[in-house]
Structures are given as C-alpha cells and as structure tokens.
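> tool_call: predict_assembly(chains=two)
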Amino acid sequence: MRSLRYLLPAILFAALLAVFWKGLFLNPGEVPSPLIGKPAPAFQLEELTRPDETFATADMYGRPALLNVWATWCAGCRQEHAFLMQLAKSGEVPIYGLNYRDEREPALSWLKELGDPYEKTAYDPKGVGSLDWGVYGAPETFLMDPSGTVVYKHLGPLDGNVWARDFRPRIEAMQGGRR
Amino acid sequence: MRHLLLAALLLLVPFASPAIDTGSAFEDPAQQARYERLTNELRCLVCQNQTIADSNAELAQDLRRQTRNMIRDGKTDAEITQFMTERYGDFVLYRPPMKPTTWLLWGAPVILLLFGGIATVVVVSRKGREGDADDAAAAGGEAR
C-alpha cells in the first residue's frame, strides 16, 4: 500500500507520456473530411481553358473520377504535377481540376508549361465552389465513385506511393463491384 | 528625454494595427453581435489555432463572408454552424458537440477535478491527524 503511493504517480506520468508521444506524430493539418460517403457537392463553374463552357459536378459522374484542387501559388501542386501527368497518360482514371483562388492568366501558362492532365478544370477564383467541398488548402484530391459519391480525400501532394496505398485499391473495389 | 518620448510613441504602435475584418458592420446591432459571436467560435482550418475572426487567411475571409451572407439571409445560428460542419467537420467548431467520441473530452475536467478533490481530502485529513499528534506531543512537552 505504501509503495502504491509512489508507484501511482509514476504510472500516471508514464501514461501521460505515452499519450503525448503519440500526439507528437499525429498531423493536426489532416482534418478528416465530413464529405466521405456523401454525394459530391454540386458546383457549376467556368471552365478554365474554355471560358465559354461551364463545368458542373455532374460532368464527372459515370466513372470513378478524381477532382484535384490546385493553384499556381501552391508549391505542393507543382510537386505533384508530374505524377498527375503520368496518371493522365495511363488512363487509369479521369482527372478533373479545380483551380482554387487563382488567376486565369498564370493558371493557363502553368498548364501550357507543365502540361494539362485534366479533362476539365473548374475556374474558382473566389473559392465559391471550393467552399462547398470543404477545401481549405491545396493540393487536395477527391476520389468519387461512378454515382458521384465522395469516397476518399487526400490532403497534400500525390505520388506513386500514396496512389498505390490509398487510391488504387479503392478504384479497384469500385470496378470489382460493378462487374 | 527624447528617448523617453520615442519609447512612449513606440508603445502606441500596436494600437495602430489595422483591423483584420474589414467588412462593413451590420446595421442591426443584434445581427452584428451574432456575427461576432459566430466568427469567434469558428476555427480557421488554415491557421488552426485562430478563429475566423482572428485570421486573415483567405479561407477565413471566405468563411466570414459566408457567415455574413447567411445572417443577412435570415439563417439561424444553428443553420450556420450546421452549414460549416457539413463542409469542414466538427473540427471547425471551437466548442465541440457532445457525442460519444467527445465524452472523454468533455468529461476529463470533471474526472480530474474529482480525482484531485479526493486526493486533497485524503492528504489534508491525514495531515490533520499528524498535526493533532504533533500538538499533543507539544502539549505534553509543555506540561513537563
């Protein structure tokens, strides 16, 4: 009983240490999206490269699709661009773009310089459509199933590892389910 | 003397800091009060330890504008916070809702207080008894 008096604080301290230690490796920047499992929010925005056309959420339905949020001010977007180009070339899944709080001129020259992996890009300079998607930074990438339900959201740049771990299995599951 | 004056002037500099929220105020003071309360309870997700009232991030500007428009459109506070959580999750609320995943969060202070309270009572009552013993010993000493 006497020893418990000294042991108990030590145990509590150790437990606290364990909690803090785990907390050190959590990323508070990764806020889980409440959109997962819900229908993709509707937007209707100007197409970036063809200003006379509109791009609506429904345009992405019918196939598994990616919606990639990007902007020219975003360093992570430049980092992931080569991967997006490669992914577009592979034809694994159509990629749509959401140009977030950007300007048309630099955005167009970005696509000219680095290549355009997007089927369509929504131009959202005021972040109006992006707000409904809960976008709070760039890059962000949403995966939707053919019915237009949001299945997954990735924060930060995409690369081959993230793709193989988080995206490909989910896309394969969708295609398996359809057969 | 000049240094003192300069120092005094420098102390005034913080008061000249420009306002973060540059939107115009509501004409209705009640609406303005609601706006101020809501923006002080919603978290800016870009700079996570600031409210959208404190932050000058573009996202915070967007959310302030959204809050302002929704108040103007006659939406209730509950509708506005629901709109925000549907998009950004509970994380956007500085005052998290009571639900199974947050019971520990809300309950922890009560549990800790209880714990501390019990410990205090135990320690104090034990000390009290020791004190009595000391007094008795002292009294005994006096009598001798």
